[in-house]
Specification:
Elements: E1 17-24, E2 34-41, E3 46-50, H1 60-64, E4 72-77, E5 80-81, H2 87-94, E6 97-100, H3 112-123, H4 128-141, H5 157-169, E7 175-179, H6 190-199, E8 203-207, H7 211-217, E9 222-226
Parallel strand pairs: 3-8, 3-9, 6-7, 7-8
Antiparallel strand pairs: 1-2, 1-4, 4-5
Helix pairs in contact: 3-4, 3-5
Length: 228
């Protein structure tokens, strides 16, 4: 399955993410398997991956970021196979990959607001005020009054989940994984997430089995793959 098209006179477009016959056996941490998963995700394109259940995590984001090796097949990010890239370059590349995590993804000794802006401040030369203002703008876009100054452990789950949305979209990522992004969140906020996801310049991968969300996101140029 391909998500990119090219005319005869155009230069080849390097996909943001490529999975070629990727297979992974089940593990203690992850239930289920991946078998010969193949797709190309073009820059700015969108892909929906539909698992059988939203209760189980998946290896796909870890595979995409080179944090896990497939049992077979090849994963490329921005045209590069992870085993062929040195450690420093791998770290640089991973900064362009953002996630709304299926599970916990917070630094426990920082406030929620500090967590949200941490990566952008660490990996770029942007002024802290600029980054914080962007984060606050995104927070309001997602129906939040602002970013909580309290520890993530003390933040109401639906608010914390939307803070993950802010962290995923802040800056200029190349690839965003939205892993069950509506979990615990009222459907009234769904349109704001879809609007941001469909307008971003980043490539976006949705991992969800929620039919209403899939129906809302699906359209021209959006591929859907059902995961067994």
């Amino acid at each position: 399955m391909k998500t990119s098209n090219m005319s005869e006179n155009e230069e080849p477009i390097v996909p943001t993410l490529e999975f070629d016959q990727v297979s992974v056996r089940s593990s203690v941490e992850m239930e289920g398997v991946l078998t010969d998963l193949t797709f190309d995700l073009a820059p700015g394109a969108m892909l929906i991956l539909r698992p059988e259940s939203e209760s189980h995590s998946t290896e796909i984001p870890a595979l995409a970021a080179g944090l896990q090796d497939p049992d077979s097949g090849t994963v490329k990010y921005q045209g590069l196979a992870w085993p062929e890239v040195g450690p420093l370059r791998q770290c640089q590349l991973r900064f362009g990959i953002r996630r709304v995590f299926h599970g916990e993804g917070w630094v426990s000794n920082l406030s929620t607001a500090e967590n949200v802006v941490l990566s952008e401040l660490h990996h770029t030369s942007r002024a802290s005020k600029e980054v914080e203002e962007e984060a606050e703008t995104l927070a309001r876009e997602f129906g939040l009054d602002g970013l909580p100054s309290t520890n993530p452990a003390w933040v109401e789950p639906s608010i914390l989940q939307r803070c993950e949305w802010v962290r995923a979209f802040i800056g200029a990522p190349a690839l965003i994984f939205l892993e069950v992004p509506m979990r615990g969140v009222s459907r009234k906020y769904q349109d704001s997430l879809i609007s941001r996801a469909t307008s971003t310049a980043a490539s976006v991968v949705w991992l969800t089995s929620r039919a209403s969300l899939i129906d809302a996101v699906s359209g021209d140029g959006v591929d859907l793959i059902k995961l067994s």
